[in-house]
Design a protein that fits this description.
Layout (H helix, E strand, L loop, with lengths): L4 E7 L6 E3 L6 E3 L5 H4 L8 E7 L11 H14 L5 E5 L5 H11 E2 L5 E4 L12 H12 L2 E2 L2 E2 L4 E5 L2 E4 L4 E2 L8 E2 L7 E3 L3 E3 L15 E2 L7 E5 L6 H8 L6 E6 L9 H12 L3 E6 L12 H9 L2 E2 L5 H12 L5 H9 L13
Helix pairs in contact: 2-3, 3-8, 5-6
């Protein structure tokens, strides 16, 4: 008889973990240790489920790098005990959290699936049960003793995405996430269909998991808009101890070519601040040099983010800044796909 797969459910907080008190109608935390009793459908899966919760579950708006570290430490502590992990977080910052965790775990060879819901698990029309059941099913899907998924993913509303390719696109629809520049890794319909040619395969299956716990959070996202004050840009670029900037530009990476603006960026780069060019568009990529308005950015040393998402760009920036790389190596590493977060064949 095949060995039962063991899954660890990690609840950090968020809508999915709430249930209504039948007497008061108020929301209260769901007891995930009783999950199989509350969701008997899980008994049909060939897996055992254990759960662990943050001592104080957090709202997704309070997610930060300290909690990222907490999540990866839970995984590190339990990595050899379980075959897969399902991480429950609030959906508002799920793309940020799951992207960060993907960079913090090296040589990952087991599934880590982030999920959540738009409605509490106790609501009549909740999306929580389907998201949770299928996320656990995906995490427990093994073939010939090996997991089908061995990377950090995000499952929501019938689709499994590479986590660091996702963006939340809706606050009030069940289809809350999208991956504009990379196809889903799996889709859940009548059958659970994996797009196996897209799924990351570990190169060295003998290597141990490496956990990177330090992230540099002295970074900022600067979104450009027509008429942005040069004083605002100057103030942001002169934040004390600032180490990195994700610059949200127009179209394929275009920005104002005014002398004042370019000089501010140039001075910031001279001070060692890393500036990453990421498009405000949800689909497509930065192609610096295609237009004169991006050519100057390229010349002064702004780094192209290609087709990376904002959420992944800020996470990757935090991760790489801790590595104390030379300017040249940092540039190469940011442009290179290290967790499947960026398309390598784009001409940067």
């Amino acid at each position: 008889m095949a060995k039962k797969i063991s899954i660890l459910l990690v609840y950090t907080g968020g809508t999915i973990g709430m249930i209504k008190d039948k007497k008061t109608n108020a929301l209260k935390p769901f007891n995930f240790s009783q999950i199989v009793a509350k969701i008997p459908e899980l008994e049909q899966l060939n897996c055992t489920i254990k759960s662990i919760s943050f001592d104080k579950p957090i709202d997704s708006s309070n997610m930060n790098t300290v909690y990222y570290k907490d999540i990866v430490e839970i995984i590190e502590k339990n990595y050899k005990k379980f075959d897969g992990f399902v991480i429950l977080t609030g959906s508002d910052t799920m793309s940020y959290a799951s992207s960060a965790v993907s960079f913090m775990l090296d040589n990952l060879q087991k599934p880590i699936i982030f999920t959540g819901s738009q409605l509490p698990i106790g609501d009549l029309r909740t999306d929580a049960k389907e998201n949770l059941i299928t996320a656990i099913e995906i995490a427990s899907t093994y073939k010939k003793g090996k997991p089908v998924i061995s990377e950090v993913c995000l499952y929501f509303e019938y689709k499994l995405y590479r986590a660091n390719r996702t963006t939340k696109i809706s606050a009030d629809q069940f289809e809350a996430f999208a991956s504009m520049n990379f196809p889903p890794l799996a889709e859940s319909g009548v059958h659970l269909k994996f797009n196996e040619h897209l799924i990351h395969q570990p190169k060295n299956k003998e290597q141990a998991l490496i956990v990177h716990k330090n992230l540099v959070d002295e970074v900022v996202i600067l979104k450009l808009f027509p008429g942005i004050s040069i004083l605002v840009v100057k103030s942001i670029l002169n934040i004390p101890n600032l180490k990195g900037v994700v610059l949200e530009t127009y179209g394929s990476g275009n920005a104002s070519n005014s002398e004042d603006f370019i000089n501010l960026l140039k001075e910031a780069i001279k001070k060692g601040i890393k500036i990453i060019n990421v498009t405000q568009c949800k689909r497509g990529a930065v192609m610096m040099g295609d237009y004169d308005t991006s050519l100057l950015l390229k010349k002064i040393g702004v780094i192209s983010g290609g087709d990376i998402t904002i959420e992944s760009a800020i996470s990757k920036l935090m991760y790489l800044l801790d590595k104390k790389l030379s300017d040249s190596d940092f540039n190469k590493m940011f442009k290179k796909s290290i967790r499947g977060e960026i398309t390598n064949n784009i001409d940067f």
